[in-house]
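Weekly sync notes, structure subgroup
Attendees: PM, AL, DS (notes)

Item 1: joint prediction request from the bench team. They want all two components modeled as one assembly rather than separately. Inputs as received:
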Amino acid sequence: MENHLHRKIDEASEYCGVPGEVIIYFIEQEWVRPIDFVTPILDEEDVARVRLIWDLRQNFGVNDESIPIILNLIDQLNLMHLSLKKFRIH
Amino acid sequence: MRSLLPENEAMIDPYQVLGVSKKSDQEDIKKSFRKLAKKYHPDLNPGNKEAEKKFKDVSHAFDLIGTPEARAKFDRGDFEEAPFGQGGPRPSYYDTQHEGGRYSYSFGEDFGAEDFFEGLFGRARGRPGDFPGEDVHYKMEVDFREAALGGEKVITLPDGKNLKVKIPAGIESGKKLRFKGLGGPGRMRGGAGDAYIEIIVRPLEGFTRHGLDIESELPVSFLEAIIGEEVEVQTIDGSVLLKIPPGVSTGTKLRVKGKGAGAEGNRGNHIVVLKIVMPKHIDPALKTMAETMKGQFDYNPRMS
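Output from the run, pasted for the record:
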């Protein structure tokens, strides 16, 4: 997926409905690693990840200690999907 | 009741969507929402459009009646046309990763999952000759100032392709930039690999980077340290005048705001670390004067 949209934290917050201070917390925990880590500016991938973490914590009752494990497993799965696609037998 | 959705779409009843009654309490609504959200979350149902739509409906319904305030408004028919909060038309995390995303790839880099798959399927079961291209790694030197303030560089890859590399302001040595599909060509149906460019920041004498701050040492005479003085200081933007307050010591740090690294509007600071330097030769007259002063102004710097 191409990422054209880049947002500052306040814009990202408005866009995805997650409070700005919570997004900053996610970045501090290194659960989200903004594409531009200096400003910081979040792209579509970052925002979708913020929203996923928010859903996990807010709606699924996942505690902070489990978040990195779940994220790691999700990334692992996504990569496996991708790799499988690449090596699919035609 | 006002329509919850644009005119051409059917109106939804949030109570019905969440499977609760108008008499249900907030806790029941929340429980039901969580149950449905878990069931239909797009990251748990990758690629399932129906689940995605249901998740959006459920989220939208919860936006409308998920809190006592929102629910009261909704029940009165006095709600704003919802700016999609939770259920908006944003891509899910899976959407951003399933064709290859930074996060999935960063995982791949660390654990070599692609190599694993190549070993497992590529040679053993894949179509003969059907290999993806190799990732290629380059190193690129950038000036201290360019790394601090950002810039653009065009580099020529070994295959003759020119690549415009945007250097993000504030980048640090060792950071890698990834260029998808610019690595080695794939064979048969295998896609091209990626190019990684590792940034090496060339040091600049007298300057060091600490995150977005830039530090430099400034020698001052003991007289300047006592009296205070305005002196010229070199920053990456050129020289600026810095006021040294009276009574500074070696190691005192003074800040020149906004002259550090980073994108415009978000730059770090230039930190000046003072170093008191004595004259190379102590003139006898100075020594005599110091002895006189010692009688009147002596202090013990070893006592706090």
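Discussion: The first helix of chain A runs from residue 9 to 16.
Action: AL to compare against the crosslinking data before next sync.
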